[in-house]
Amino acid sequence: MSPIPRRSLLKAAAVAGAAAQFSWALGSTNAQAAPRAEAADAAPVTLDWLEDGGLGAAPGSTVGVPWPKGAYQEDQTFALTDADGKAVPVQSWPIAYWPDGSLKWTAHAVSSDAGKLTLTAGDPAAPDKKVTVDKSGGTIDISTGVITAKIGKSGSTLVKSVTRGSTEIAKNGRLVLIRQPEIEDEDQGAEKYERFESAISEVEVEQDGPVRAVVRIDGKHRRGDRSWLPFSIRLYFYAGADSFRMVHTITFDGTQDPGKASGDFIRGLGVRFAVPMRDAAYDRHIRIGGDGTGLLREAVKGITGLRRDPGAAVQAAQFAGEKLPDPSTWDQRVTTRLQYIPEWGDYTLAQLSADGFTLRKRTKKGYGWIGAGGGRRASGFGYVGGPSGGFSFGLRDFWEKFPAQLDIRDAHTDEAEVTLWLWSPEAQPMDLRFYHDGMGQDTYAEQLEGLNITYEDYEPGFGTPYGIARTSELLFWANESTPTPEKLAEQVEAVRVLPQLAAPPQQLIKAKVFGPGLYSEPDRSTPAKARIEDHLDFLFTYYKDQVEMRRWYGFWDYGDIMHSYDPVRHQWRYDVGGYAWDNSELSPDLWLWFAYIRSGRADIFRFAEAMTRHTGEVDVYHLGQWAGLGTRHGVQHYADSAKQQRIANTTYRRYYYFLTADERVGDLMHANVDSDETFLVLDPIRKIRTEPYTPDRHALSIGFGTDWSGLVSAWLTEWERKGPKWEKAKARVLSTMETIAAQPNGFVQGSGLYDLDTGKFAIATTPVVGVSHLSAVFGLNELCAELIDLVDMPKFKDAYLDYCRYFNATKAEQAARYGSNFGTLLLFQGHSRLDAYAAVQTGDAKLATRAWSKFYNSDGYSESSPWKTEKLSGPVTLVPGSEANWVYTNDTALYGLAAIENLALLGDKMP
Question: What's residue 692's pLDDT?
């Protein structure tokens, strides 16, 4: 791959004009939204669960459903029925609109498990037990009809109490953080710790029922006068549920300087609750999840396995988690000696790698630990309680995002304490320092030389984690008594795979969302189509298997994949500069989401979900001078000095958001609306400019490819969602489309000078050819297909179709049209989807022929590629597995998208 444009830090004073007034003009009269659509087909939609088992023990599920233009207006209500036609309670709300104001996407929350569901226009059924929210007192009280949670408005406690009926099941729910101020290598130094707790700054009720309630809590972790590590917590409650869900986000704002031992090193990061203990010690039950649905099933005071037998029925009842009969009915040889049986109050399960967990217990603090077993991959689930009530808890992706840990403390006292550690305090401190000393790369010339050997774009001070984020998901149950083993297994399964309702691919295709005509359901009706489908399946399966073989797991890493392979070492280039973590390079996110929306496959959804959670949080800055920008591929997710709009691209988040209505991803998309301001701070091509350039808010150099596609995706999404800045966003969409189309060479012009106040590009006076092989491979084709469908602007459509027509044209054809050719280009296979799109839009049969020719016979993968893996084992590789040493992620993403889109657009015109 050729070097990509870089961004470099400029004086902070350049941002001073950012507060100037915006002009939100919508552009000239020919830049208008498409006219209102005629009433469209609005047939019922069948919703189904991604995996077998339905809702199970989860509190509820929310699904996004798309509608054709004009099908329903904003005030439409919806009803839900099960397979027998029985009404199912549902809460519905709009999450996107077509330009004519009709509903584009709606979200629907359900809290009952009724198999397949049918969604239609109509009046929704109300739940028997509604979610209610009371904000009138000192707490926010939320009742599901089964449990009531009191949410703190200030202080350190997020969840004051969770009650079921009159019984308090849990209380004092708060966040905990352990800071280690110094880190020493080997056996030097003395470890010291500082303990922080949550400090609430703001609480907002985002939804208040009747089926779903959502509370957002923001703050920082505080100790004394210091507050740091901002958090954003959402709590989800569903009608009739005995459980609730937590979505937990932290943003790193500490200091960790390369080469220095002192800094803000996180030693532990967790969520903690107190659990009142009312039952006798022999009726206090401990459940900790192991492999699969396996459980440690014990009591604080065990009465099984003793020298004296209390009775078979008593022993069986304790193992089952049932209340024991009065001890006076037991064998008195046990009853009279109960005080001599140890009470085990403390338990810890630590998952310090993806390959092993250990479990231990002790009687109480100050006494020795006893090994209680271990295994490979724990479920992240636990329970403490008894016949009078108990608290179940679970951390999703427990082993995948190691090091994680579960603690139960003081279960022998009146109040136990449970902590779900997102970062285990028994692991090494969270070390985010940049990984090398710069190796003398002090000047741009030296940095470019480094780029030419390791493909890493280094610059001092740029490899910082300041501002990156991570989101975790947790579940909690307030049980009226210790659940049965079968119920516990259901809770474990909900933690491991959170149940998700889904609309079928046919509905997405019919609604023409995500680019009309760009995807279709898998079709094996001809040998040629079947071969491509086989290749697509091969590539997805290979990456899924590589995640496991190469252990692409860990708190900060899980969800990403590697960029390039090293056939000599039989290893991905995890330690070689820009060839390591992929960070969305050339849009693998899009490949996965397109693979899902055409197939409805659960395994693809889960892979794409993990990637979206990762790339939208870890690979992007959310605080500081680079907020709104992402980091190019590298050895660490934040290591490269190229901080770019293309990685923060809202396009990669849209799919998950609209399919699930996930509020956290919605936050990420809204945060990008003003990311055009970042061009005041970082110059995209500072290191390779030959002319002097100083950022000017009225003349910012912005590319029409990777830059604009990232900007316009955020604006389009805000407009569709009618977010707080939707009018400004709409204006930006229309004015930039208009002024790109008005350039002498349209998209081929390459870039323009953008005015932050007007939202327009200046119209160049001289035609220029500025085409890059990267311009269209970060979602530009998919975005333009949506924009052309949404906005009636013939000149923009012509400009984009011209770009599509000439990228894969001969140099002679390019020169004849534009006066000069496009120079040396790459990625022709990936660009074949531009040929296909233009062929359909123009009816040009020659373009259709060229699309398949470039797909089959240019670069990338071909029919003669091996399309198989080779087995690996020792001593060649670290662990047994397989490799396809011809597979590279750039090629995979481009082949995947080209195959999917070409089949949909030109499947009837295959050679």
Answer: 84
